[in-house]
Fold each of these.
Amino acid sequence: MNVLISSCGSGPGGLPILEDLQDLDGCLALVRADLNVPLRYPHGPDKPAVIADDFRIQKALPTMRWLTSQGARLRVCSHLGRPRGVVEGKYSLDPVKIRLQEIFPDIEVLENLRFDPGEEANSPETTRRLIAGCDLYINDAFGVCHRKHASIVGPPGFLPSVAGRLVVREVEMLSRVVHDPKGPFVLVLGGSKVSDKIALLDSLIKKVDTILIGGGMSFTFLKAQGIEIGQSIVDNASLEFCRSILKSNRTIVLPNDFRALSSDGELSSECGGKSPTGTGEVRIFKTALDSDWRGLDIGPETQQVFAAEIEKAGTVFWNGPMGVFEDRRFSKGTEAIGRAMASSKAFTVIGGGDSARAIRSLGLDEEIDHLSSGGGASLRFLEDATLPGIDALLKDGH
Ligand code: AMP
């Protein structure tokens, strides 16, 4: 069957999109979706799983509905969890298949892509098997577009290929941050490791006006300034990098107060289920920590300083929690940043992962301009202004 595709894509940056396709009636469309849903095992780990939250399925539906409205038949594929090339019943896509077949009775849903080692190894054999009999390919799996996997970068070499609705929206929103940020542009970074954010800081340092740094990574910056950080997490290999960033002529705001845990204390996750609330004493320190305390969240003054910067901003991009938010005693900083983002008039984007989870649990996701579906993918897009999966669609010769 001959699917036609316009020579120049009408999506952002010339990206080919669904509307560039013609004559879809009766053709078979391979849709690479992100159906990596959280599962529950209420009847035991060896019994069939139940979908715990179907938001990823809901988000994938508009692309599939548009294709079927044009008369296309669907072959859908996705990964689920990290089975690392081994078939494991608990990672089966069957629960997703059953749900999708209730909506599209004729849909073909392939088994978990990562049961095949060729998926992550980008094997041409795997690509050939996926596309067998298909007339076109749609990439709607933004969360894996930074990975050179067989289902992401392979099919555009063989089939007319376009981006699905979710990928187009991600590229539109993140391109606004990369290419056209309304100032002041405020970058909010948290999470545990500096090393994960080095490439991002390197590439954005000239574009941002202000960088707010919280979470575990802030302690490496504080140590680089000679501040006592007690038993807090530190990434010694990144100290030199932190010093160079601190010398740049950008405004870098570090925490000046902290919520810390005493040395005998344990986080709720460290108590092995013995204490769901965690143990030990929590105290607020100003400027520096005492030697046997662990800084686990930004303090109330820092919350206010960060919130004021977010309020003044024209664009805000946030990635990484401000503290160990999984333990309720250290979630206040992350919640405060979430609330400041939600009430800010700035163009607000959250780069997936823990920060997106935090904003959803606060019920504030509707107040954010864009909540990216891919943590790693959104950071890589900000670093490089493109991703391997997007490049493959742009270079598609069909
Ligand atoms: P990342 O994967 O680098 O985005 O980091 C997310 C993790 O950082 C979360 O699981 C947090 O618990 C952890 N985290 C945030 N702040 C701290 C901190 N001050 N000390 C240790 N871990 C932290």
Amino acid sequence: MRTVKVPLSDRSYPIRIGKGLLSDLGNHCARLGLGNSCALITDTNVSRHYRKAALQSLKTHGFKAISICLPPGEKAKTLKNVQRCFTLLAKHRMERGSFILALGGGVVGDLAGFVAATHLRGVSFVQVPTTLLAQVDSSVGGKVGVNLPEGKNLVGAFYQPKLVVCDLDTLQTLPIREFRAGLAEVIKYGIIYDAKLFGQLERKMPQLMAQDTSVLSATIARCCRIKAEVVGYDEKEEGLRAILNFGHTIGHGLEAISGYGKYLHGEAISIGQMAAARISRVLCGMPAADVDRMAALFVRAGLPTGVKLNKTQTRRLLAAIKLDKKVEGGKVKFVLAKRIGKVITSQKVPDELVLQSLLD
Ligand code: ADP
Ligand code: ZN
């Protein structure tokens, strides 16, 4: 088992990464010295595979646990489901000493974290992310929240968990498309922060795709360490944390105009990162060889690198980009790359160049 520490002074917490950790979940929780009752929040897909094992382990270690099961997918990240959780927590008398345990992907983690942050003004929170994306990204950094009809993640909080447990075995049941989408965030860490990691990914992509234990656990740990370091410097996104948005300005735009249906998040930011690289080639002198290496790696990970839009889609994309909450005073700010491993934030990009950059 590997451990990565997220350094946030009195809110620091460990991320445990390894195989077979779910069957030991109760033990990990017991060591935190939390109260003895907990609410496990999950979705129907994850529940089918892992709820029993999680509950069994909690029970063995003396915890009294209830479980709350949500429908799967982004559409479940609503205030209505938050309300449903509050009602069940009240009904089962989950008091201040109790804790919330999120078992699932980013959707479950974001919603359960928001419930933990607000139930009785905050109870302890433990996360067991079961998608690659959640293990390397959403479970690190404490952003929790839900969507409104008006947009994604418009209601939320910064709320850190007490512990994150990444059981590599849970990834075995993850649909291959979801696993690949997670690789888009993994590759992103190489581009924004760690050229050496990018090189390792180029060498080890086949083993990573085959979920080779040592490659997978080293890669997840490296990504968590990078995100922990970035968040440790800048918890509330006042500066450095913005680098994590590389590829996300255009990526979020694509997700929005396709009604959050066509692309998985990882696929949209794969296109977004390639677009940002092509823009960087023009505006920041990113070497052509680096742009090519990026495209080659995304392709090997089974991810898309471009998109052809018609006139209407083009107009809607530019409008969606300008609506993104990262926009300040009407100005869209892009994260661009000088080279693989080094990015710069707050860059202005003309609309024309955004559109050109979408094509392979
Ligand atoms: P993400 O972590 O990518 O933000 P979700 O929470 O929506 O996204 O999870 C993606 C999909 O994968 C959902 O349908 C979810 O139910 C399913 N899922 C999550 N973890 C697993 C797993 N370990 N095995 C099988 N399906 C899973
Ligand atoms: Zn992302």
Amino acid sequence: MSSEDNRVIIFDTTLRDGEQSPGATMTLEEKLQVAELLDAMGVDVIEAGFPVASPGDFESVAEVAKLVKNASVAGLSRANERDIEVAAQAVKHCEKPRIHTFISTSPVHMKYKLRKEPDEVLEMIDASVRFARKFVDDVEWSAEDATRTERDFLCRCVETAIRAGATTINIPDTVGYTVPEEFAEIITMLKERVPGAEKVIFSTHCHNDLGLAVANSLAGVKAGARQIECTINGIGERAGNAALEEVVMAMRVRNDVLPFTTNIDTTMLTRASKLVSAVTSFPVQYNKAIVGRNAFAHESGIHQDGVLKHTQTYEIMRPEDVGAGKSALVMGKHSGRHAFREKLKELGYELSDNAFEDAFQRFKELADRKKHVFDEDIEALVDENIATATDRRKVVALTVIAGTMGPQTATLTVDEDGGHRTVQAVGNGPVDATFNAIKQAFPHEAKLALYQVHAVTEGTDAQAEVSVRLEDEKAGISATGRAADPDTLVASAKAYLSALNRLEARKSRVSGGRVKVEPLSEAVRRSGP
Ligand code: KIV
Ligand code: ZN
């Protein structure tokens, strides 16, 4: 591929630089899961690890190399024969193996880290790239700390690597120091001044210490680089690397000014983000671009009104384009009438004008007092019957046998509209047994979408607060139940039943005809946003 093409190679280093984030270590199994997803998503090169670093790293690079079907798999190595040999061994089972070898080129790294003179470094570049080429045709060479490297020397290093047979030249901003204009100038300079530059692909590898990793990577591409090294969720050393989902979506959404393409199936971005967050236990910040949970959520009345009238008023991309489901209208104190009316419709209510005004005022009062206004709160606001509907089935008694001795068994007595019934079920653990008992008492198709336990107070006698969300996929409806009890299993059973009651009440409202609600009180109507 020539660098005149506008296709940008996406080189994902989540499994190497990403895993170098303190605390982000992944097991072999987890790395394989991530690699499989990256491959399916259309990543061109997967840097699977640093094989010489440990036997575990070697094994994971080797296993990723065997697993991956489409992408190239790269193994990182320093500029010495042992590293390169081990990297070559690790990637040899891949159809498209790549060796990625690097050495520092900045004065501060050469003097204090390598303790080498520039001429020695040049010799090492030549020898390492030539040695790597004995094993594979695809050799990437990186100038570590390139952006703090003296420019003439950087040109000599790059020229040496190209002469020795490197096919990709990577220009890392190792310490996240550069700014877009400067980085673009470096790429332009290398392409203009280095003999043989036209034969290789220039690559960016930008760290995010100043929050500029994505901007720098895109500036590099505008200046002629055609590979971006990046990670899912931007994880990586210190402040991380350029986020894959951000660079890819920037080029897609702003293709008018960034006329480049990638091979990425963007509808898989959210899944990839969730998987990497789960296996590394690194939460994704709520307001993270593209994949944060607020990326397509609107709370302010003005924005909600705009989005309801036309999504493009406040959304520059469609949530489904990044696999994020639909935009969310979060109900809170900033929400306005338009969103409130939509929410009521979604919950199956049809309100007369007076009832609507009445409910809206009470919603605003509640939202002022409560941080999160849930669907259940809104139901309680507008529907006098909801308490009875959601109270139809109750837990009367629960006994659970748990421990190491045998199948965990739950014996549950429930009340349905006044009649009692006792059932027994086993499960894979006491919670599973309890939920199975509920399913036996009240057979249903809904799936458990969330089970969350919080300790409300401290200590072993703490009150447990449990949330359960059930989803009826066919009906496209979900409902959440919450309950608190000093016994976690009792709280779990109550929360599950509450969710089931709500789900059924909501289902019959939405499918079996909307509930018409008259004003609950003659509250004074005030006008608001
Ligand atoms: O940041 C960096 O310089 C690196 C190199 C090893 C490519 O990760
Ligand atoms: Zn790096």
